[in-house]
C-alpha cells in the first residue's frame, strides 16, 4: 500500500494552494471547454486563445480536489506558449504516465523522442497518482477537457 | 434493549485490516456490510438446493422455490404488507423506480399531468421520470427545501395542482432528513394522486409499515440492509399492481405466449421476467431475519444515540470549522452526516481518512440537483449502521484534524 | 485433452443425497451447478472488500471496483469482444433482451418494419418484442422449422423483406438445435438488418467468438454457465451501443443530472443504472476463469460424447417407445434431450425420476410457441453439462422403464 | 420424504386411465371455462349445464399429467347432479384439503358441518398431493376452472 506522501507531493500541494493561470478568458474570442468528473462532482473550465498555431493564453476555473486543481494548474503552466503540436505531445506523454501501465509506455516513448521540450518536468510529481487508480480521473480531468477543446477547433 | 456489544463480530468484513488499521466502516448509506448469517444462507443455497425455481417438479427445485417464496413472505411481513403478492423482486431500488415510471407512468401520464418529487431525491427517483417525461410530455415538479434541509411545504397546495404521482424519499441519503411522508401522502391522496416512497435509506434503519407511511408504492434495495447486491424490492398495493401493465417481458411473467401475443401472469410474477435472483432473494430473507432478531426499534435507538454522539463530538471539537448539512436534531434525522470541514475537498478528505482505515464517501451521492442547491460539487459523507459504535466516531473525529492541516490553503 | 475425471468433486451440490440417492443433475439447461471456486469468490468479496463501486475513494471500494472491472475484462475476452466497454451487465438474459428491444427497438422500429425471430425462441426473445410491437406497430415474423427441428431457410429472402432486426437463438433450449447463425447474419447484414443472438445456451457450452458468429448484439445469462443468479450480459459492438439511448435511468448511468434533464454516461455504464450486482459480476468472472481452466473446446467434446452415448442408450433400450426431439446427429446439436416416452406425462416422469434423485425438467421450457408446433403441452427435458458422466445417463435410462409401467394407459 | 405411493394412489391411476365424463358439451347452450397451468403447460376445459340450480351435466377435456387428469375426472363425478351450493361446498372442502395447512382447516371444517353429502369420498385419495407442493396446482386446476365458470354465471 503506497503512503500518502506518494500522492500529495509538496509541489502538488503548492499548485493546489497557489494555482497558476486562474480565471476565465472571455469567450469568444477565447475557446472554452469543460470537463466533469461524474464520480466526485469535480468540474473544470479551460479557456484558451490560439495565435500563430500556439496556445498563447490559457486560464483554469472550476472546483475540485487537490489533485484535479493542482494538475490543472500544472497543465496551464506546461502548455502556455507552446505550439499546438507541442501541447498535444505533452498531453500524450502525461496521459501515458497516468495510464496504469505507465512504466513501460513512458520509458519506450522517451527513448524514441528525447527532445528536451517534451520533458514533463514538474508534472512528474503527479506520477504517484497512478498508485491510486480512483484518482487518475482527477489528474486527467483538465487534460481531457483541453484535448476536447483542441479537437473541436479542428473539426 | 440495546444491541449486543459484540455485534461487529457477526460481520466478517469488519475485522479486516486496511492500511494497518482495523477498518472503520462509515459508508453504510452507500452499501452495508453483511452478517455471516446472510453470506452463509447464500452459500447453503448454492451448495444444497441450487436449481431454477417455479418450473421444476424435482426435490431441490421445489426446495429452492419454497426458500425463495418464504423469503418473500418474510420480507412482506417485515414492511407490513398485506400479502406476499405485494412484494415484487427487482435487481435494485433503481429498477423498482424504472418499473413504476414505465409501467404505471406509461399508462397514466401524459401532456398536462405532473409528477411531484423533491429537491433531495436520489437520481433513481429523478432520471426514470425524466426519460419518460421526454417521451410523454408531462411535467416534473420539485418540492423545495428549507435552509436546514427539510422539505418546504408552504406551497404544497399549488405544487400538487395537476399532480398524479408524488414520488419522494422517506430519508435523504445526503442530509439524513426524515420527511413527513404520511402528511404529504394524505394531502396527495386528497387530490387523487398516488404516492411512491423511496425507502432505500428507511427500511434498513426504521421499523417500517407501508400502511402507516401512507404509501401506494415503495422502492428499496437489498444491499443497504445487510442483504446481498443484485436484489431490490418494489412493494405496492395488490389492486394497484394488478392494474399496472407488465414491465420487462420474458419467462415467468406469462401464463401463455402465442405468436399473436401473450397473457401476463398474476402479481408478483407479472413483474419478474426471467430467472429471478434466487440466491439474492434468499440472502435478503436472511438479512431480514437478522434485522428482526435485533429489533428495528433497537437499531433505530442505537443510531439516534450514535448520531447524537457524533454530532456533539464533531461540533465540540471543530466548532465553526465544520458544518453538518441537514437537520440539527438527531431524533429528527438518520445517521447520515454530510460534513464540510474547512476547505478540505471531500475527495482529499476521504483519501486521508482511508490511510487510517476509515471509509467515508466523497461525491455527489447520486443527488446532483441537491449538490447544486448546496452549492458544492461533492460532500464528505459519514454514515452509520447497527454495527458502528463510539470508537468508530472517535476515529473519524481524530482523523479530521491532520487532514485539515495538510490541505490548509 | 478431456475433462478431469473427478470434476464432480468441485461442485458441492453434486454430492447431495436426494431421496436416498446421490443426486443426478440433468437440468443444466435450466440452471447449472456452481463450482466451489465461484461460491468462494463471492464469499471472499463479501468478507474482505464489500463496498459500493465506482464512487468510493477508499481502499476496499477501489478494490471492489477493480475486481468488478477485471471480471468485465475477463468476460469480454472470453467471448472475443474487442473491448470491455462492449460488455454490459444486466440481471439476466431476459433483461438484456428487454434492453435491446426497448432501447434499440424504441429508436429504430415503427409501423411497416419487421423483426424476424424463429419458431424455437425462448420467451425472453419473444415477449419483449411483442410488448414493443403493441406500442409501435411493427411486425414480428417467424422463421419456420423443418420436421427434425432445424430452421427452414427456404423462404429466408421473403422473410427478410423489410426486416430491421433478426433476433435468434444460437442453440435451442428445447431441441438442442444449433442454428447457422453466421449464415443468417451474413444474409441479414446484406439487407442492412442487425442481428441479436440469444447465446444463453451457447456461451456455457461452446468456444464463443462474437465476430465469428456475426452478431451485432448478444445476450446471455450467468446462472447457466457456472455463475451465480442475478447476473446477465449484453454484448454489443461499441458504435452500436454508443448509438443506443439509455434503458433504465438512475445512478451510475449519468454524468450529470439537472432539473431539466440528464446527460448519459459512456458505455457500458450508460446501461447500468443503480448499484450493480457486484458480487455476482465477480462470481461470473470466477465462473469464466473456471471454464477457461477446463477449456471450452474440451467441454464441447465432452458433451458431444455424452450426447452420443445418451442418444444411443435411449434408442437402443426403448426403440419406438421413445422419441427425442430435434436433430439426430450429436455433432449437430447440444446436450439437451427433450424426450417423449410412451404416454407418460412429463410431470409424472420427472416426479418418478425424482424418487431416484434424478433431476430433469418437465414443462414448456419458456417456449410455448414451439410446444404448440410440437403439439404438446410440455416435454421431459434432460440436459447435460461438463460435470455429467455416463453414470448419470445410465441412471436416467434405467429409471424410465418403471415409470412407463406405472403410467401405462 | 414421502414416497410415490402417497401421491399415485391406485384410485388416482384408475381415474387417469379411465377418465369419467370426458369430452365437451356444445357451448352454448352449455357453459364453458378453461384452466391453464403455466408451470407445466397443462390445460383443462370444463363444459357444464345448469338446470334447476343444479349442475346437470359436466364434461372434461384437455391434457395434462395424471394428477390433473385424475382430479378433473374425480371432480366431474363428484359434482355432477349436485346443486350449485353443494358444488361450491365440495369445492371449498377440496381446496381446503389441498392447502398446505389442510390438516387444521380440514378437521375444523368437518366438525362444523358434518353433513353426509359433503364427504369427499374418493377425493380423499388426492390428499397425498399436499406433500408435493409443486403438484397442488395440478390437482386444483380443474376445480379453479369450474369456480371461475360458476363465478361468471353469477356476473
Ligand atoms: C435460450 C434461452 N434464452 C433465454 C433464457 C433466459 O435466461 P434468464 O431466465 O436467465 O433470463 C433462457 C433460459 O431460461 C434460455 O434457455
Ligand atoms: C435514497 C436512495 N434511493 C435510491 C438508491 C438506489 O439504490 P440502488 O443503487 O441499490 O438501486 C439509493 C442508493 O444508492 C439511495 O440512497
Share of residues in helices of chain A: 40-55%
Oligomeric state, counting identical vs distinct chains: heterotetramer
Strand share of the residues of chain B? 15-25%
- Characterize the biggest β-sheet of chain B: 7 strands, mixed
CATH architecture label name of chain A = Alpha-Beta Complex
**Unreliably modeled segments of chain B:** none
Describe it.
The complex is a heterotetramer, with 2 copies of chain A (155 residues) and 2 copies of chain B (409 residues). Helix content of chain A is 48%, strand content 17%. Chain A has 155 residues and is of the alpha+beta class. Chain A has one domain: Alpha-Beta Complex (Sufe protein. Chain: A), CATH 3.90.1010. Chain A has a 3-stranded antiparallel β-sheet. The radius of gyration of chain A is 15 Å and the shape is globular. About 10% of the residues of chain A have low confidence. In chain B, strands 4-10-9-8-7-5-6 form a 7-stranded mixed β-sheet, sandwiched between helices. In chain B, strands 13-14-17-16 form a 4-stranded antiparallel β-sheet, covered by helices on one side. A two-stranded antiparallel sheet of chain B has the order 1-2. Chain B has 409 residues and is of the alpha/beta class. Chain B contains 13 helices and 17 strands. Chain B has 2 domains: 137 residues, Alpha-Beta Complex (Aspartate Aminotransferase, domain 1); 255 residues, Aspartate Aminotransferase, domain 2. Chain B is globular. Chains B and D meet through helix 2 and strand 11 of B and helix 6 of D. The structure holds pyridoxal-5'-phosphate (2 copies).
Amino acid at each position: 500500500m503506497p503512503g500518502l506522501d506518494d500522492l500529495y507531493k509538496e509541489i502538488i500541494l503548492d499548485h493546489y494552494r497557489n494555482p497558476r493561470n486562474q480565471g476565465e478568458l472571455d469567450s469568444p474570442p477565447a475557446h472554452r471547454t469543460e470537463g466533469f468528473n461524474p464520480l466526485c462532482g469535480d468540474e473544470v473550465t479551460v479557456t484558451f486563445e490560439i495565435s500563430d498555431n500556439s496556445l498563447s493564453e490559457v486560464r483554469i476555473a472550476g472546483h475540485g480536489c487537490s489533485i484535479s486543481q493542482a494538475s490543472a494548474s500544472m497543465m496551464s503552466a506546461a502548455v502556455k506558449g507552446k505550439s499546438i503540436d507541442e501541447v498535444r505531445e505533452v498531453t500524450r506523454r502525461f496521459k501515458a504516465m497516468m495510464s496504469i501501465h505507465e512504466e513501460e509506455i513512458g520509458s519506450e516513448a522517451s527513448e524514441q523522442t528525447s527532445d528536451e521540450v517534451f520533458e514533463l518536468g514538474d508534472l512528474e510529481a503527479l506520477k504517484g497518482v497512478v498508485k491510486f487508480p480512483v484518482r487518475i480521473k482527477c489528474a486527467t480531468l483538465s487534460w481531457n477537457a483541453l484535448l476536447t477543446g483542441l479537437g473541436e477547433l479542428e473539426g | 434493549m440495546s444491541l449486543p456489544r459484540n455485534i461487529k463480530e457477526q460481520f466478517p468484513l469488519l475485522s479486516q485490516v486496511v492500511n494497518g488499521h482495523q477498518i472503520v466502516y462509515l459508508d453504510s448509506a452507500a452499501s452495508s456490510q453483511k452478517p455471516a448469517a446472510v453470506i452463509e444462507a447464500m452459500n447453503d443455497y448454492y451448495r444444497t438446493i441450487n436449481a431454477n425455481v417455479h418450473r421444476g417438479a424435482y426435490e431441490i427445485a421445489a426446495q429452492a422455490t419454497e426458500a425463495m417464496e418464504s423469503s418473500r413472505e418474510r420480507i412482506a411481513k417485515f414492511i407490513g404488507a398485506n400479502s406476499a403478492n405485494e412484494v415484487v423482486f427487482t435487481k435494485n431500488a433503481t429498477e423498482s423506480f424504472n418499473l413504476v415510471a414505465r409501467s404505471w407512468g406509461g399508462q397514466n401520464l401524459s401532456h398536462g399531468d405532473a409528477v411531484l418529487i423533491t429537491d433531495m431525491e436520489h437520481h433513481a427517483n429523478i432520471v426514470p421520470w425524466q426519460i419518460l417525461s421526454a417521451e410523454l410530455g408531462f411535467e416534473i415538479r420539485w418540492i423545495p427545501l428549507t435552509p436546514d434541509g427539510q422539505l418546504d411545504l408552504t406551497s404544497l397546495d399549488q405544487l400538487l395542482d395537476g399532480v398524479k404521482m408524488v414520488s419522494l424519499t422517506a430519508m435523504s441519503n445526503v442530509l439524513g432528513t426524515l420527511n413527513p411522508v404520511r402528511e404529504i401522502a394524505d394531502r396527495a391522496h386528497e387530490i387523487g394522486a398516488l404516492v411512491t416512497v423511496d425507502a432505500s435509506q428507511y427500511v434498513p434503519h426504521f421499523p417500517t409499515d407501508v400502511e402507516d407511511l401512507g404509501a401506494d408504492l415503495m422502492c428499496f434495495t437489498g444491499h443497504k440492509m445487510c442483504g446481498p447486491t443484485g436484489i431490490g424490492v418494489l412493494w405496492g398495493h395488490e389492486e394497484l399492481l394488478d392494474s399496472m401493465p407488465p414491465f420487462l417481458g420474458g419467462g415467468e411473467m406469462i401464463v401463455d405466449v402465442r405468436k399473436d401475443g401473450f397473457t401476463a401472469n398474476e402479481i408478483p410474477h407479472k413483474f419478474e421476467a426471467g430467472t429471478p435472483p434466487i440466491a439474492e432473494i434468499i440472502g435478503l430473507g436472511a438479512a431480514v431475519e437478522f434485522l428482526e432478531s435485533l429489533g428495528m426499534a433497537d437499531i433505530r435507538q442505537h443510531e439516534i444515540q450514535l448520531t447524537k454522539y457524533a454530532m456533539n463530538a464533531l461540533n465540540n471539537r471543530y466548532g465553526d470549522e465544520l458544518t453538518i448539512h441537514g437537520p440539527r436534531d438527531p431524533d429528527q434525522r438518520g445517521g447520515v452526516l454530510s460534513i464540510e470541514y474547512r476547505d478540505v475537498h471531500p475527495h482529499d478528505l476521504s483519501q486521508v481518512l482511508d490511510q487510517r482505515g476509515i471509509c467515508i464517501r466523497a461525491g455527489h451521492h447520486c443527488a446532483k440537483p441537491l449538490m447544486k442547491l448546496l452549492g458544492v460539487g461533492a460532500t464528505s459523507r459519514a454514515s452509520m449502521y447497527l454495527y458502528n459504535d463510539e470508537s468508530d466516531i472517535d476515529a473519524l473525529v481524530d482523523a479530521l484534524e491532520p487532514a485539515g492541516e495538510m490541505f490548509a490553503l
